[in-house]
Amino acid sequence: MRLPVPVLCAVTLSLLLSACGGGSGGTITPVPEPAPAPTPGPVCTQSLSAQPAPAAAPMGGAAWVAGAADWSRPHVPGRVLVSSAVSGPALSTLGVTGQEVVPGVTVVTTLPGAEVSVADRLQAQGAVIQPDYLYVPLAVPNDPGVPGNGGVTVGGARYEQTYLTRVNAPQAWTFLQGCGKKPVAARTAVLDSLVNAAHPDLQGRLVAGRSYLAGGPSDDGGHGTATTGLIAATTHNAQGMAGLTWTGTVTPLEVIGASGASTSTVAQAVRDAVSGGALVINMSLGIAVTGTTDPDPVLSKALSDAAKSAVLVASAGNTAGDGLYYPASHPDVIAVGAAGSGDALACYSARPLTGQTAQAAQFMIAPGGAGNCPGATNATQLLVLNHGGGYTLQAGTSFAAPLVSGAAALMRAANPALSAQETKARLLTSARPTAEGLRFLDVNAAVRSATR
To answer: Rg (Cα) of the chain, in Å, rounded?
Structure first.
């Protein structure tokens, strides 16, 4: 039986650089959104191989546990923190004075540069000492696309990655950094069209992939470059976009040619991705299917086998009335629909049909751009990598799915002990409910859930 050719799950923006959906002409500059405040006090309940914290929590006398003083770390010059084991008269005999800052802890002031020698003398008197360590705000990516950094120029106007704040990605980054971790991706495979590995904003993020096209022409329209960049655009390189993950490797597997993809190419790529150690697989492709029987037994078997070790994510499709596309409708796959400018499903996004209870249990949504929905503007689309080396605006469930894949990659890197099934379950249950009763991706909640 000849199967339909899968299609890319991206919405064509007929008015990409002019107002969409019947608005006035010309480019539209969005109002920059302020960067969110850091989430207070990360609570890391899972062992994350963090660096040992300095002995910097003196909460009174015996509660202050001695730690190795590290004078190479940033600290306030001319200050030493001292336990109450050394009395005021003893400090005077050493030619220094101090002031109690919290119960049981005194800050001793010395000449700048003399703090180490003074600390040595105090330690010889039986004092527990440490530097007055300096703490600075956690790093915020300097990529222009990150909200608050000025935006990336497309078509003469500047646009930001507002979808990052909508899914609470900056809070997740801050949480991971507070646990001593970078926002690293577990090994991820992207099954898509040709990816421009030479794109300046993908340097250092890709490992050698493979093309499964049997001599057919590649599709160089940029779909694969755009989806890959949402997960893995090089972060904190002072240019372009920030990927949802900052470090870690992504394997681009070319399964979509100029004529589309096929069962054999996708099934083979899925199996190879798992053999290569992929813990997350993104598939922004699909076909509309009807009926309840398995629409593609060969691919279905490959997906079921892969789901034993990898989190599988697929775009839901871009026709609102046809139900979920396949493979998004496969029971082992997280199906991702697209939210427009708000929390509601975009007008074009596929969704489970009434009665599709099993499919609805695996369905969630993430920002995908407003497409040509009523009221859409350039500012309501997604900023993505352009295959030619720059940046562009796109919309579609194709671009919502990689945000979910990126969240899964952060989760599995933060807690390598999580199974694929547990990661999937926590990703779905950590999503925040929308007014429509759907699950909206919350990267911060997902990452925190992974560490518990």
So the answer is: 26
Structural domains of the chain, count: 2
pLDDT tens by residue, 267-301: 999 999 999 999 999 999 998 887 666 889 999 99
**60 within a domain of the structure (yes/no):** no
Looking at the structure, tell me whether residues 107 and 238 fall in a common domain: no
Look at residue 64 and tell me if it is in a domain: no
Is 264 designated active site?
no
Check if 398 is active-site: yes
Q: Are residues 109 and 217 in the same domain?
A: no
Q: Are 117 and 158 members of one domain?
A: no
Question: Are 46 and 450 within 8 A, CB to CB?
Answer: yes
- The reply to whether 199 and 121 lie within a common domain is no
Which domain range does residue 219 map to? 152-451
- Active-site residue 192, yes or no? yes
Confidence of residue 387 (pLDDT cuts 50, 70, 90): very high
The three state secondary structure string of 184-251 is: ECCCEEEEECCCCCCCHHHCCCECCCEECCCCCCECCCCHHHHHHHHHHCCCCCCCCCCCCCCECCEE
Whether the model clears a pTM of 0.85, i.e. scores above it, the answer is no
- The predicted-structure confidence for 305-342, as pLDDT tens digits, reads as follows 999 999 999 999 999 988 999 999 999 999 999 999 99
Task: Kindly report, residue by residue over 222-251, the tens digit of the pLDDT.
Answer: 999 999 999 999 998 889 999 999 999 999
The single residue of 300, 398, 430, 449 carrying the catalytic annotation is 398
Q: Which residue out of 75, 83, 84, 192 is catalytically annotated?
A: 192
CATH number (domain holding residue 123):
3.30.70
Please, which residues have CB within 8 angstroms of residue 416's CB and are 6 or more apart in sequence? 186
Q: What percent of the chain is modeled with pLDDT above 90?
A: 56
Choose, from 75, 193, 199, 223, the residue flagged as catalytic.
223
Same domain, residue pair 106 and 245? no
Gap between the Cα atoms of 78 and 122, Å rounded: 14
Q: State residue 136's pLDDT score.
A: 43
The answer to whether position 262 is within a domain reads yes
Whichever domain contains 253, its CATH number is 3.40.50.200
